[in-house]
Structures are given as C-alpha cells and as structure tokens.
Amino acid sequence: MLFGGTVVNRLGTMVEPFFGIYLTQARGMSLAVTGLVLSVFGAGSLLSQPLAGWLADRVGRRATLTGGMLASAATMLALGYSTSVPGIVAGMFVLGVVVDAYRPASQALVADLVSPVDRPRAFGLLFWGLNLGFSIAMITGGWLAEAGFLWLFWINAVTCTVFGVLVWRAIPETRPEASAHEGGGFREMFKDRLMLAFVTVNLAYTCVYLQAFFTLPLAMKDLGTSAYGWVMAVNGLVIVFVQPLTNGWLARRDPSTVLAAGFAIVGLGFALTVFASTALGFGLTVAVWTSGEILTAGMGGAIVASLAPPHLRGRYSGLYGFSWSVGSLITPLFGTRLLEAGPVVLWSCVGALGVVAALGQLALGPAIRRRSRLVTAP
C-alpha cells in the first residue's frame, strides 16, 4: 500500500519542477522576485523534516503522512488560485513545510513494518517507485502546462489526497511506545554521535549529487535547455530499467560498504564531466553517476533505521532528510562559485568531495555494523 500510494503521488508531482516557469510566465514575476519566492519555499523545507519527524514519533506515522498529504493538496489549490505576491509567498512557505512531510513518516513506517534484513530492498523499492512516477510526471507535466498551469495544481492535489486517504484506510498505526526508561526527544538523538557523523557524511554527498540540478544545467547552457532535458532523461531511464534488476542483490550486501561505493561512483561520474562538451558526452557522465545513485538507493534509509531507537525513528528520519534540505541550500552557493573559476575546478572539486564522502562512510562502517547487530540481536 505504501509503495502504491508513493507511485500515485509521484505521478502527480508536476508543480515543483515547473515553479520557476509558472511564477515568471503565469504570474509575471521578475527573476529577482521569483528567486525570493523559491528561497521562501526552501526555508519552509528546512523546517519540514525535523517537524515531520517529531510528529511521526509523537502523533503517529499514519496521521503525519495523511495530514501532510492533505495539507499539501489544500496548499496546492490555494497556490494555483493565488494572484497576489504576499499570498503566493505565504503559500510557498507552507508548501515547503508540508509537501515532503510524508518522508520521515514513510521511512519510519518501513522500519516499523519490515525486518532489518529486508529493509534495503524495501527502501530501494520505494526509491524506484519515486523515480518511476516522477519520470512519467515530468513528461505529462510539460504537456499539460501548455494547456494551463492550473491543471498541474489540481492533478498534484488529487494525487496527494489519494495517497493520504490510501494510507489512512489501508495501513495501521505502527508507532511503538517508548518505555519508562527510554529517553525521548531531540536531545537523545543529538547525543548520538554516530548518527550525527552519518548525517554529516551524507550532507557531503548531497553537495555532490545535487550539482545535477543546480550547476549542471548552467554548465550546459550553451547546448540549450532541451539538451539538458534529454541528458537528465538518461538518469530516469537508467534507474527505472536497471535498479529493479540490482535491488535484491544489493540488499544482501553490507549497506555501509554499498553506500560508500555509490558515493565514490557518483563523485567519479561528476569528475568525468570535465571532459564533456557535447550532449552525448554529458549523457555518458550522467549514466556513470546514475549507476552510483542506484547503489545508494535505500541504503541510507536502512542505515538510519538500524541506528534509530524504535520510538525515535521519525526524528532520526527527519534529521536524515534535514541534511538533504541543507544540501539544497548550500550546493548552489559553492557550486556556482566554483563554476565561475572554471568547469575543471568545479568538477574536480565535486569529484574529490564524493571520494571524501565515500571514505567517511567506510570509516563509519564498523560502528554502524556493531550498532546494527545490537539492534537485531534477540
């Protein structure tokens, strides 16, 4: 049910990729105002993951996921009909808070329902569903946008509602209660040095991976926007067709080792961008780092689930998601600065950062394996 709802939801995820175009074309905003509005959305996303993680542990996984989806649906419709700048800014902030609030609850649900040995495969399955739905949404969203952006908001709102109702009707609450001797809250989580180290390593990786969405299109600007679209389509195609074939095999391997290998390959793929000058060349580099992305699929969630006490799985998942939100804010800042110094500087530094993240993950591997054995021990 969770997988099916995720696919349906991502099939309707048509608004976010077209925010910039919508604000400039449909609402007539300048580029400066558009940038401000998008930054407000990013500020909301910073609050989203910790807040949703706390709610998943305190209120429940099912209520948090359903509530986040219904709130996203209502906010989508409000944004679609908003015409004033203050209304759009307020709507974008609220949307930033609620649109990804389902992630910590979803990850906690998987950790609650699936045995540790099967978690990498389960998280990998959700990863594949996200990419399958999003790939279709990108194609249909571009076509529907020509008929009117309001269609995108309505479809996104409907699929959010379907996902929320499906979870509420079909999935029971799985939140474990903390016993009297167990601590709770963020204080206990922030005392977990291993989790904090893992999140720091993951933040380094996000600053590598997110270059695909911030600096890669700038590096390809001379080839045109259509070239970037086709190159990024390689990412979706490789994931949709290759990841299901490798999911079961990778799930039987040590998550930390597989994750480190994925970090290194993603870094290598971006480093090879130094030699790319044509759409074909860029497409080949995307195929390389996408193969590394496939290795990382589900492994991060499985590690978080193994580190988190059962009654804090929501908060731990929220902290993991927070590293992605922070990465989305800082990646364009340093990425564009490095690109100004030249493509060689940018892609060499990004590749090196991928190797650093891989080495950091390998260093954490023994401690993560010890913690995992303690969690799964009878």
UniProtKB/TrEMBL annotation:
Residues 1-369 form the Major facilitator superfamily (MFS) profile domain. GO terms for molecular function: transmembrane transporter activity. This is MFS transporter. It is a multi-pass membrane protein. SUPFAM superfamilies: MFS general substrate transporter (SSF103473). It is found in: Cell membrane. InterPro entries: MFS, MFS_dom, MFS_trans_sf, MFS_Transporters, Sugar_transporter_CS. It holds the Pfam family MFS_1. The chain crosses the membrane at residues 28-47, 85-102, 123-145, 151-171, 194-215, 227-246, 258-280, 286-307, 319-339, 345-364. One of its GO terms (cellular component) is plasma membrane. Keywords: Cell membrane, Membrane, Transmembrane, Transmembrane helix, Transport. It comes from Acrocarpospora phusangensis.
